[in-house]
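Hi Prof. W.,

I finally got the 3-hydroxyisobutyryl-CoA hydrolase prediction working! I wasn't sure whether to trim anything, so I left the full sequence exactly as given:
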Amino acid sequence: MSEAPVLAAVRNRVGHLTLNRPSGLNALSLPMVRLLHRQLQAWADDPQILAVVLRGSGEKAFCAGGDIRWLYESYKQADGQHEVFFVEEYALDQYIHAYPKPVLALMDGFVLGGGMGLAQGAALRVVSERVKMGMPEVGIGYFPDVGGSYFLSRMPGALGIYLGVTGVHIRSADALHGGLADCHLPVEQFAELDRCLDEMHWNVHPAEALRTLLATLGENRLPASELAALQPAIDMHFCLPDIAAIRASLQAERRPEYRDWAEKTLELLEGRSPLAVCLTLELLRRGRGLSLSDCFALELHLDRQWFASGDIMEGVRALLVDRDKAPRWNPPRLADVTPERVQTFFAGFRPSAGKTRRQA
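And this is what came out:
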């Protein structure tokens, strides 16, 4: 069992799921997605199971995303498995959002891409001080998916736009400030959390019992949130209507407390896939007015075009396969991306009738 890609155990009426590919930063494969979904469904139907804890093995990552190298090879081989992966991964993520029993996502280390898709649907999102969280897809010529068009677009102010189009990683305090986590638990308390779970009497509703336990174990001794300090500038620049206006605004930033950040942000934008950056902005703007299910449907609509018409194959080639770190983006510059090119990817998508808005 120690070699299985997902470990499952039950202790004291709690189902424990562990992503078990530590050497690969617990990146998700199609078999892992299927194992997770199958086990969650079994526990949903089992009255003896009251709650689920989801974590990653090792000290480096909860989950660093999907197995993007495998997706690249699948597309090159034309076996269709990359499309199957997205369909099943999104179905799993959406299932977690609606899971009938409380899911506690216990996050340590990297929580990126597909890891965010698993965690953001959990009822209780717990982060350690070692968390490095983000949706870095634009760096490999892709866009934030796994429900990112839903949870990023509902962050305070323009924080989600900023995270999505730059692909920056954030720390625990920032995750709490931005509403991407509910509780901080020092990593040395993880074992104590397990011990307490193993001894719980479940005299109250499981969700209430878990919240009380976390409040008892958690602590607030975290560094100040960098996002909180930057939010006035982020809101000012990233609320603008297009990437050209955002860049111009960042270039004009003269306030001493924001100038270095603005320069670094411009450098980040210049290094990302221009097409992915512009499409991400449009995706997140649309996501604000869509239900969760429609956000997943829209991301799937984009997936079905992106491997052939987007930048992901070139990004993976340059950064993960050939490793020349010199992707030839198409087009090569942000200024060359036209609104018409971006809109072609959204053509034909129709939200579900009567479900254009869901309360966050």
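Residues 159 and 234 are 7 Å apart (CA to CA). Does that look reasonable to you?

Thanks,
D.
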